[in-house]
Write a structure and sequence with these properties.
The structure is a homodimer.
Chain A: E1 2-6, H1 15-28, E2 33-37, H2 43-47, H3 59-64, H4 69-72, E3 74-75, E4 81-84, H5 93-96, H6 106-112, E5 120-124, H7 131-139, E6 142-148, H8 151-170, E7 176-183, H9 190-203, H10 216-220, H11 228-231, H12 236-254
Parallel strand pairs in A: 1-5, 1-6, 2-4, 2-5, 6-7
Antiparallel strand pairs in A: 3-4
Helix pairs in contact in A: 1-12, 6-7
The complex binds adenosine-5'-triphosphate (ATP) (2 copies) and magnesium ion (2 copies).
One adenosine-5'-triphosphate sits at the interface of chains A and B.
């Protein structure tokens, strides 16, 4: 079982969209995938079609009550893809767990006892370097960083990479960087070219070959409560996430 | 002096872009404006041209050491526009102030003693409903909510509006909603139309007439360390923010 956390404290860069669609693309080729929605906004849960009323058990219960993952995970409309949904209660986790010594390792401990059921676990993080994201980085084998091709997005990367180093020395010595995936790429836009070139120059191999284009079907799909791969399988966005899934598997295999 | 906080826990919706460009548009018509950068990413500080090396005093010192605003505020390349810059230290404020009783009112107390110097104070918030955003909501006369015309963005609005109600009853009884401004509007995109129509239908008068279009000059300007109004004054983005400033002033005057 490989645990990959989708993290970037910069907001709106495509963390949730990547978690949902990469998860679906892996499930589509037979991998058993679990999504863990660690964002109080619950966008991954909504985007994959889990109504609020169905979120009786959630990641809040897993982190705070140590509910086993198997008791919280729900099937989705995608075969081989399950999710532990999120509710807005998650935003109080910083306060609820503030006295606990082991509070950053809660998710890691819960996932440890589930390792037989899934091939991949994808954790969708909120846009902050807070206790929720720390739980995701502590539990992860690797971090996948969606990077929007925009000026502000590049600026936040240094902070994120230094946080990953801190987590590696304090909480999770084996934490690796799975890679950086360029998102919302618009080939007509000079700034995009520039940011992408800068990223490849400074980060080299860490940047995935696959680039996710800006594609309206990716942003329409959540309003139909399904991943883009089901909403419009041959759209540029869906095809890009299928390529990303293939590249992810070949990079891990080669490792 | 009117304190307006730019808040929305959904990431990447245009909080920083609105703070910088609305601030500049108000300064351009003679209003004395202070930006307060409350985001550990420091995007507003970078976007207005404040190098990291110039951020010796920052919002961290204001919140934690109770440094007076006048000792932290820096002039910018825009006449009439100053900024209290942010550094990544801000991300530890939750922990540093965790034992303090009055921790959500730190910014409010600091701004109280500055009221003579500015006509407007715009506070740029991080994408989270955390202690930093609570400080901004406690200090504010009103909240301006940038709303991206996307499905996920609409979903987060309910959480934000209920947090504003909670803050009104617990911390700041006079907190009003200045309005909701639609951002990154692309008239060729059906989803945009739909989200904009939904927002106007459910929120009515709260939604500003002025809509900010998706405009590449707005995302290019920060890489030149200046607001779009200086980078390209006649671009669609700049003109929209000038209209927004005019509408903001006429809405307040009419109040
Ligand atoms: N490649 C793409 N093309 C077009 N739209 C996209 C693309 N990727 C994401 N989006 C849209 O952009 C917005 C931001 O994406 P998303 O919500 O996935 O980012 P996020 O990093 O998870 O945001 P947050 O920081 O709030 O958690 C969403 O409305 C989404 O539908
Ligand atoms: N109207 C617009 N047209 C085109 N690009 C825009 C527009 N508004 C903002 N952007 C770009 O979109 C990205 C997100 O905007 P911005 O950083 O202002 O959002 P934010 O809400 O402050 O994000 P965060 O939640 O991370 O603080 C930035 O790269 C910005 O340059
Ligand atoms: Mg998200
Ligand atoms: Mg911002």
């Amino acid at each position: 079982m490989k645990v990959i956390s989708l993290a970037n404290q910069k907001g709106g860069v495509g963390k949730t969209t990547t978690a949902i669609n990469l998860g679906t693309a892996l499930a589509a080729v037979g991998q058993r995938v679990l999504l863990v929605d660690l964002d109080p906004q619950g966008n991954a849960s909504t985007g994959i079609g889990i109504e609020n009323s169905a979120r009786q058990k959630s990641t809040y219960d897993v982190l705070v009550e140590r509910l086993p993952i198997s008791a919280a995970a729900l099937p989705t409309i995608v075969p081989n893809l399950s999710i532990v949904p999120a509710t807005s209660d998650l935003s109080s986790v910083d306060i609820t767990l503030s006295g606990e010594s082991n509070r950053a390792n809660r998710l890691r401990d819960c996932l440890r006892s589930e390792s037989g059921d899934y091939d991949y676990v994808l954790v969708d993080c909120p846009p902050a370097l807070n206790l929720l994201t720390l739980n995701a980085l502590s539990a992860a084998n690797s971090v996948l960083v969606p990077l929007q091709c925009e000026f502000f997005a590049l600026e936040g990367l240094t902070q994120l990479l230094s946080t990953i180093k801190e987590v590696r020395s304090a909480l999770n010595p084996k934490l690796e960087i799975e890679g950086i995936v360029l998102t919302m790429y618009d080939r007509r836009n000079n700034l995009c070219h520039q940011v992408a070139a800068d990223a490849r120059q400074t980060l080299g191999e860490m940047v995935f070959e696959t680039v996710i284009p800006r594609n309206v079907r990716l942003s329409e799909a959540p309003s139909h409560a399904m991943p883009a791969l089901l909403y419009d399988e041959t759209s540029a966005g869906s095809l890009a996430y299928q390529r990303l899934a293939a590249e992810l598997r070949s990079r891990s295999a080669g490792a």
